[in-house]
Every structure is written in C-alpha cells, then in structure tokens.
Records
---
Amino acid sequence: MNAELVRILEAGFAAQQSGHMASAEEHYRRVLAKDPTNEFALNLLGVVLVKSSRYAEAVDALESAAKLNSSDPETEANLGLAYVGARRIDQAVNAFRRSLKLRPAQPVVLNNLGNALAARDKHQDAISCFESAIRLDPRFADCMNNLAKSLLEILRVEPALACIARALQLAPKRSEYLNTQGEILLRIDPSQLEAAVSRAQASLSQAQAQAAQQRANLLRSDRDNTRTASLWARDSTLVSRQQVEDAATNLEVAQALFEASEFGVSQAEAALDEATDQLS
C-alpha cells in the first residue's frame, strides 16, 4: 500500500475514533476509489456502517473484506455484527464461530455469539458461550446479564439470580440489570417484589419524618442563634461570647444534619422508583 493511501486510512481511523463517522466513511471510500480491493478500508468501512445502522451496506463491505482475507478474526467478528443488524442471525452465528476458530480467546465475540444463539432460542448453547466469555473476563457484567437471561429461559432460576447479583455488584445502578433481576424475582415469587416496594415505601416515610424533624431543629437553632447574636449586639453582658459561639456552631450542625436528611429522602425516593419499576 502506498504512502498516500496509508495517510488517508490513518486520517479516516482518527476520525472514526473521534466519533466523526461521516468523515471516516469519506476517507475509506477515497481509499477504495483508488484501491477497490483494500481489505483494511473495506473492514473499517464496514465497522462505520454498522455503527451507522446501515447493515446491508456493512454486510457488502465486510463480505468483500472476508473474501480478500479469510484468516482475519476481526473481519469475521465485524461481519457477524452486520449480519445481526440485518437480522440474518444464522449467518451471524457462522461468522462469530469463524472468528473464534481463528482466535478462540475473545470474550466479546463469545458474548455476541451467545446473544445470536439466544435469539434462536438455543439457550443451552448460548449459556456455554457466556460462561466461556466470563471465564476469560470475570468482570464482564453485560455478559453476566445475558447469561442470567438465558438461565431464566431454561428455568434455572436460582443460578440466574446469583449471576445477576454478580453483575449488580459490578454496576449497582444499571437499569438493565435491575430489570433482569426483577424478572427473575417475579419468576421465583411475585410477593418478593411487592414486599420490596412496601419496604421502600416505609423507608421513604421514615426518611421524610427524619427530614421534618431535622428541619424543625434547624429552625429552632436559627432562632436561638438570631436571639443570642441580637443580645450580644445590644449588651455584651447579657450573654457570654461562648454562648454566641455555641449558638452559631449549633446552627451549622443543624444545617448539615438537615441537608443529610434531605439527601436521605432523595435516596429513598430513588430506591422506591427502582422497586416500583421492577414490579411493573
């Protein structure tokens, strides 16, 4: 490949890495206009087209790249994604498998293959893929979520619950994982989710009561501080300097406690929203 084409490819890849897909596509097509069989440009163009949801065009580009070089695992993996987008799931499965045959230790490709197999209701095979991916990457939370879903589909409910619990340890606030957990709990016992909502409602009521109490304390501390400061300003013999300082300190503490209680209310509201979402 001559230096000019290398420069154009590099500029296109830089644009792609920066999220400028239209510019990247333009650069790759410039390379292909001069060298239609440039496998690098075809592969990178295919990736850009997948990210742009132009799956039919992506398939054409990546199939051409794969014909030029049938030993590149990345091309086959990208082709699998293009097939998935084009809803050609069986071909996606074959492409992912070709990629893994060329390079077995690819957790992301194993996860993608598992998803494709799950889309064909081949959940036992999907589970094997997800488990292999997690062995390679024990912190692959998205794969744990997918594994939990397939385990649930074949009614392995307790392992599914344990699996999604691991995912939530890695990403406690991911709504997708919480939804999966809710689906599993519904399958085990719908009353568990109803109880979780009741507990969240009780926690919110308690937090609101604490906030109301702290607000009352804050108002009282503010009055005491105002009164003490006023007496000191009128006649320094009416109150001591220590009393003035204590009143100011008490006000600061009351303000901090009130703000903490308000934060507790917001957390309790968020917890109730999550529990309610799982139940629905």
---
Amino acid sequence: MVVIAVNILYIKIDDQKEVASTDITDHLTFLGLTESPSIVNNYRDDSQQDGQIWSYSRYGQTTITAKFLLQFFDRKDFKMAKHEIYRVFAQKGIFRLRTGVEPDIVRYCRASSFEIKSEPEEVNYCTFEVPFENPSGMRFSKLHTDEMKDEDFLDLNMNMDEETPSYHFKGQNKFSILNDSDIKIDPVEQRHDLKITIKHNGGKFTVKNTTTNTSWTYNQNLSGNDTLLLKGRRTFKNNNPDSANTDYGYITLAPGKNNFEVTGADDLEITFSFPFMYLG
C-alpha cells in the first residue's frame, strides 16, 4: 500500500519520475492549488438586431496556481533553495500535477513564469505562487477505466450504490457503463480520449449507445484472432487502418449511465478505456 500525505504536490514532467514537493528542497511547504472552470461564450453580430446572438459555448484554458511557503536560515540558504525550486518548476515540458488531498485526480499543464522574492521584513520565510496553464481546462482520473480496481473507484469518491462499475463485457447483447465525468465524452468533436477494443468471430455487427443515440457498424468478417480498436471515427484491425470497412460512425458517452445494445454479434467482447473528466 502506498501512503499519500496531505499537503504535498506530486509533479511528473514528461516521462520523468514523479517527485514530491517535499523532495524539491528543505523546508518547502505546499499550501494548496487554486483552480476553477472557464466557460467561453461566442456570439455573432446581426447588423439589424440589437445586441449579439449566441453561437456556441466551450470550455477554455484555465490557470492552476500552486501556492508554497519557503523557510530558510539565511540569504545563502534562500538562494540555494530558490535555485532548486526553479530547477523543477522552470521546465518546458508537460507537467502532470496531483495533490495529497486528491491523489487519483491529475492535471496536465505547462508552467508559466514566476518569481520568488524575500522581503526584508520577512527574515526567514517567504510565500510564492507557481502558475500553470491547463490548455484542456479539465482534470482527469489518474487511471483509465480499464485499469481501475475496486479501491480506485472508491478513491474517486464514486457513488457505487450497487456493484463495482464494469468496462469489459463478453457475450452480452445489452449492457451499461458509467461515465463518472462532469461532461459528455466526445472523441470526434472534442477529441476526447476514448478507446474501444472489440473481438468477434463472425460477420457484420453494430454497437449502439442508446443513451446518446450514437452507433458504429463493422461490415466485414472477423476471426477469433482479430482485434478491432475504435478511436473516434478511426478503426484499426490488428493495428492496421480499417475504417473503410465501417459506416464511419462513432460512440459518445453521456455523463452518468450509458445503455448499450449489440446486434449481429452474440459473442462480442468489448472493452471501454477512458479517463474520467472533471471541471473543477
């Protein structure tokens, strides 16, 4: 079992090893993150009508601010600590951030410029903030659904009144999956991360989400050794492009329970892999 301490920021840059804020330098205390959703509304003008006409809304880029307290003994100690902090946070890569309070929720962002100053009246301490740009405006579950176990769902504070959610089904013509996200998952219009893996021994079949009224049909024969991967409108058969043998449909997931129906394949084995997405 891994014990996660409260008031720690965990930082992973690109493919590097994850580090804790307590390991960056001595006497550095993480005070917390501030973040909130950003909704961008777009309007158009009509020269003969007062005001503007709404066109669409979308979630915009957000700023995540990490707050810290740094304590030091003297000016030399302050200079050394400041260098160690910049060496971690002043990097160009993609930062994955998670906290000890919510260790199973991550953000993917880039660091912005920041300054660490010690005022004369602050003899042996200072506070500073590190801003991060979050281009997606979202937070994500650390694991994808096909990687989660019972304890992972509980750690996300999911309300499981019945049984543990399942994202792998075999030989079922009707089943349901839970999208615990705050928003609809749309792998085409919003390019959200949704991968559906399918195995079937037979001919044409259709997978339909009756909740969102979206479906996808495969028109050719498959053997039991074949594997299909659906990523938005793109289909791959045994890792080779195979969209031409589909109807170019795609599947979306509404927040909450999604009901599915399978026609033409009683033996279908299907797995849904995606991270939950949260607004704030």
---
Amino acid sequence: MDQIGSGLVSKVQKLVQEGLELRVNFDNLDFRILANQVLTNHRNTDVHWINQYITFDRVPSPHLDDQHPLADLKELPLTEYLLSQEEEKQFRSNITVLVARVLTKMVPCLAHIKDAVPKHIPHLYSKEMASKSVIIGLPVQPFNQSKHADVVQYLDYLESFLAEVHAPENQHVPENESSNARQARLDRNLNGIKVPLGGDQLGRERVTGAKKLRLGCDSATARLEHIEEMPELWHAKQAFLSVSFKVYIQQICKIQWHLTGIEGAHGAQVAFHLLLQDNNY
C-alpha cells in the first residue's frame, strides 16, 4: 500500500498549488478471509478497513464566511427558502429536460427528436461544472471506523498526509526529529488549513468522538483541528432509490401486467424483464 501511494503527495500538491480545494471521503471496506482448514486458533476472519479518496471542489468557496451564520433562523421569513414563482418555473423547465432525455432514449418513436433536447441545463456554474472531476484514490488503511481508537489513528495518518501536501517546497526534515519538533512542523504546514472529511453517519459520529478524545492535546495537529467532519447522504440516496424501485414495480403490476397476462409479483417481474429486453422471457 505504501508503494502504491508513494507518488500521490506530489500529484495532490500540484493540484493544491493550482488553487483547487481538496476534500477527503472515506467509508468502511469489509471483507472476509476464509480459512482452508478451520481450527480453534485458525478461523474465518472478518476484516474492516477504511477506503478513502480525494476529490476537489470545482466551484471555489474561499470567499464564503464559515464563522458566522448568514441570518438568524428565528427571524428568517419562509419566503427566503421557499421557491418563488420564477424558481418553480425554472424547476419545471429543468425537470422537463430530464424527462425528455429519458423518453427520447427509451422510446424508439421519439428518438428522432433527441437532438432537440438540451444536453446541458445552463446554470450559474455551468463553466466550472463542465470541467472534468478529479478523483484520486488513497491507500486503504487497516483501521476499523466503528472503533474510536482506530479512527484516532486514521485521523493522525490523515493529518500527517495533509501536512505533507501543504508543506513548503524543499522543506528539510531532520533525520532525528523529536516528537515535539515534528508536531510544531506539522502545525506550521497546516496553519489556517481546514479540510472537509466526508463519511456516512456512523463515520461522522466516530470522527467527532475521536476529536473529542484529543481535546486536551497541546498542538493543533494532535487535536485534529485541521479536519472538519461532514455527513455524506449515501445511505439516504440508496434508501430513496430502493423505495422508488418498489413504487416502480407496483406501477408495473398495475399498468404493465397485460404484457404477460400474469398478475401479481411474478407478472411484475416478467414485465420488468420484458421492458429490459431480457431474452430469457
């Protein structure tokens, strides 16, 4: 793993020097090692490690204030965050484009008007979002995100990695550097740096707990102050897709069952395969 990730620092450094803002996402990587011959001291092993990657924000945000709220929520009127008539009109127009893309792709008789459907919906950040996303995979770390002790070690690794990324060019590191000197060097490298660390709800909670365990440390790096945890809604999106799929299947049961003449769940399954042009049916 160290050899695979040895050249990442210079690559990330170059992108950061170009003005890109990095963020780190992580999640658990679970796998099982099966024993060929199960003994009392040699059994199947469940391994829980951390998978991670770096990405960069395409829309710059250094000018935004992250210390004070934009408004007092108690005094904020509903009209400030509810859609206006113009916004509803724009939203309806955007949905029309998305639906038209699906229809011209999936319905053969509408394929001839495919070129009339906009390929990109214009918006305020169209230029920035047209650029290619940069995603850099980081080495898998042998830590369990469900354990605070492991998460503390993972955040220590991340602080050290970020300090290398933001280190001045040709920084000299003494061979026999003391622990205090190392902490001071890392603090200098990361002075004023805050990096978002995205994870699921469990990961975010464990990172918050790990940072609380380090509140009494002397240096900012040891207190893990350069990492800002944030939740990623992966599981919420997965649940939404699951519910949407179930609703879609129910609609097939009600509307599409005549394609097979079979009612019920099996008829829905058959109809679904027919819609996907599965030749097994």
